[in-house]
């Protein structure tokens, strides 16, 4: 597995007027409705978005780019295809890796004409510096997770993992998901981002504004003139917790407007077939 150059600084083009952001879609075979809804949303963005920034956990699991070598119509293939189609309609696509799809790599990126964002990455738009992050690295209070994160981001660990047969990797990914579900269920309150850590990253990046996902707690946190804005996750597969939202950055002349868009009604109303 070759390591890919990651984008650390994303410079918005001067003509960009509408930038869409989303994260934590957790797409895959286990989420057919969410996947179909996301595909519909991607198709609706052509001509409406100048850029699409996906801040991690687009896929519920990603066991290696070579799964794209399989001749099938898997959700992964469909998403890549839809992203490539959107890119062909003049929408710049940037994808950051999350804690579920941290193995997204160069082949995925070139298949869908996307660039891969480092974490953190700084978006420069209309004179503003905005830190983009998945958000798992901010959960520093979870020592066990932070330890696992260090291990699985090691190139040697990743090379050994992807060297295994696909079927075996699938099993391991499933087991890891079950394990993480059990660990989450055992907690009174699932882990959240650490506010002090977020402020430290903002100071380090000389930026007043951060956008991240991962925690599934969409809201705005203000502290000392700095803003931490959290994206929501998507889920249209469980009737009791339907949700789908995007954040829009609307750059003007030296300023940026922000809009949260609830997509649920629009995506539920559309026919289920893609
Ligand atoms: Mn995550």
Proper CATH architecture: 4-Layer Sandwich
CATH topology: Purple Acid Phosphatase, chain A, domain 2
Q: pLDDT under 50 segments (min length 5)? A: none
Number of strands: 11
Biggest sheet record: 11 strands, mixed
| Small molecules held by this entry | manganese (II) ion
Structural class: alpha/beta
Anisotropy-based shape: globular
Report strand %.
15-25%
Describe what you observe in this structure.
With 274 residues, this protein is of the alpha/beta class. The protein has one domain (7-269): Metallo-dependent phosphatases (Purple Acid Phosphatase, chain A, domain 2). The chain is 32% helix and 23% strand. It has helices at residues 32-45, 75-88, 106-111, 143-152, 155-162, 166-186, 195-204, 264-269, and strands spanning 7-11, 19-22, 51-55, 92-96, 114-125, 128-133, 209-212, 220-223, 226-230, 245-251, 256-262. Strands 1, 2, 3, 4, 5, 6, 7, 8, 9, 10 and 11 form an 11-stranded mixed beta sheet that branches. α1 (32-45) links the parallel β2 (19-22) and β3. α1 (32-45) packs parallel to α2. The chain is globular. It starts with 6 loop residues before the first strand and ends in a 5-residue tail after the last helix. The mean pLDDT is 94.
Key descriptive features of the protein:
alpha/beta, 8 helices, 11-stranded mixed β-sheet, Purple Acid Phosphatase, chain A, domain 2, 274 residues
């Amino acid at each position: 597995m070759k390591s890919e150059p990651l984008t650390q600084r994303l410079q918005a083009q001067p003509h960009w007027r509408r930038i869409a952001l989303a994260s934590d879609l957790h797409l895959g075979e286990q989420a057919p409705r969410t996947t179909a809804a996301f595909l519909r949303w991607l198709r609706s963005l052509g001509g409406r978005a100048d850029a699409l920034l996906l801040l991690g956990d687009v896929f519920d699991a990603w066991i290696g780019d070579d799964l794209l070598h399989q001749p099938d119509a898997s959700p992964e293939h469909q998403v890549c295809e839809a992203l490539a189609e959107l890119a062909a309609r003049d929408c710049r696509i940037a994808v950051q890796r999350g804690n579920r799809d941290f193995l997204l790599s160069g082949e995925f990126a070139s298949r869908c004409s996307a660039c891969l964002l480092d974490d953190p990455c700084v978006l420069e738009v209309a004179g503003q510096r905005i830190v983009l992050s998945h958000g798992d690295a901010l959960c520093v209070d979870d020592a066990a997770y932070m330890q696992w994160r260090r291990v699985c981001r090691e190139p040697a660990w990743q090379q050994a993992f992807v060297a295994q047969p696909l079927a075996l990797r699938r099993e391991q990914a499933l087991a890891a998901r079950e394990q993480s579900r059990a660990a989450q269920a055992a907690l009174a309150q699932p882990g959240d981002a650490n506010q002090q850590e977020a402020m430290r990253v903002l100071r380090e990046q000389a930026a007043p504004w951060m956008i991240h996902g991962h925690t599934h707690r969409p809201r705005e946190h203000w502290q000392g003139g700095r803003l931490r804005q959290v994206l929501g996750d998507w889920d249209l597969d469980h009737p009791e917790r339907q949700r789908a939202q995007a954040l829009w950055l609307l750059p003007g002349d030296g300023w940026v407007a922000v809009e949260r868009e609830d997509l649920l009604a629009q995506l539920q109303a559309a026919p289920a077939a893609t």
